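Final report, section 2: Outcomes. Of the targets proposed, Helix-turn-helix domain-containing protein is the one most frequently requested by collaborating groups, and we therefore present its record in full.
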Amino acid sequence: MERKYWVPALERAQDVLQLIAEQPSKLRLMDLSGATGINKSTMFSLLHTMETLNWVIREKGDTYVLGSFFGVIGNAYFSGMSLVKLFEEKAARSVERLGETFQLARLEKGELVYLAKKEAPTPVRLISEPGMRMLAYATAMGKVLLSALEDAQVLALYEEGSYQAFTPNTVRSGEELLEQLRMVRKQGYAMDQEEIVLGFYCFAMPIADRNGNWIAAVSCSMPIHQWIQKQDLAREEIQILAHALSATVPL
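The predicted structure is given below as tokens.
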């Protein structure tokens, strides 16, 4: 493995966490120091920092267990994986009925991150693939998820004057973006009308967890001539899919 940019402190922290995970409530500072070869003063600093961050908890007998931080991270990881699996299962029906491609994505700061795609057997392929990132303001799914933020939070994500125009229809300013987001909030859905690629429309709706938080979005994309013919069915299928994922997504 390339170690040019390796951070030894992170490796030491991982070794300590691994030991605590394997033997909860059994190891003290001296035990961890002896098992890892990390000197006592460095181990003290590591444990103190991790305790402050809720990575570990020091018990009454000065032994350690993993902290609540890893419960939160673990839940987020497995929830994300479950959501992808659920999408792949439930989107198959929508693809079969509509004959177009469906996608799943989440928002990370100002970017849309594609999580999964269920393709229709058509000669036209979308350029987006799982793992790809796209500026959220230029996409239907991105605008849906941005609409859940406060206006000030949205404006802070993009520097005014730096909006990238993928096509003549792409949002050009914060003011224009906020105007579109107000409409999205009112309608409950968003559209990309040739804003990423000329000749293509995209329709998107949000996925909510059981607390009502919008955690991801689903969309279907197609050439304009297909949208003219299929838009009613497309809206129906996206609504069904978004509702099905929202109702079953784990906490």
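The chain has eight helices and eight strands.
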